[in-house]
Prior knowledge:
single chain; alpha/beta; Rossmann fold; 8 helices; globular
Amino acid sequence: MNIEKDKIKKILVFKLCCLGDILMMTPTINALKQNFPDAEITLIASLWVKRITDYLKNIDSVITEDVFFEKSFLKKVTGVTKLIFKLRKSEFDLVFLGHRNSVFGLISRLSGIKYRLGFCQTKFINYCEPFDEKIHEVIRYLNVLKSIGIKPDIKPLELKLKYPLSETKKTYGIDEEKFVIGIFPFGGINPGTEMSIKRWDIKIILY
Length: 207
């Protein structure tokens, strides 16, 4: 279903974590900016992933929120209530929910956001696409945009340089003509994770 694009002035991207997941959302964030060039885009994320937000293109502001990880029920309810009032005051026109969590859907609705996008398993949203585990995470997020009549091209993940490369080389005494390669020796692991999207098929591991 198409929406009134000219009425979209403020967009909220709801993705609390994690680093890799937020990176996987960069094509979707860029597509939102491409289709709503005059809109201000705000990301709501947890404090422990905030450092990556400095490298995201097309994010105008960031709301850091850790209330959902509070152990105290009273603190959690109080914090969520404050967040809802904060979002209502910001008057967002559209929210993109990157989580399959109906609590976030309810928060979005109570925050007065007219267009609420997400996966169809999530309650309280009004534009959705099915969550398909068989496709790449990047494509899953992009597919949600189809619910409002947007068919974006599949583009690579993208981060912006916080500082010019020449400035970084100068800081560390590296010759301007030399290449810089970043290597993480042991890669990344997710021991014991129950999420199927983070588990590799045994045939792939042994390949």
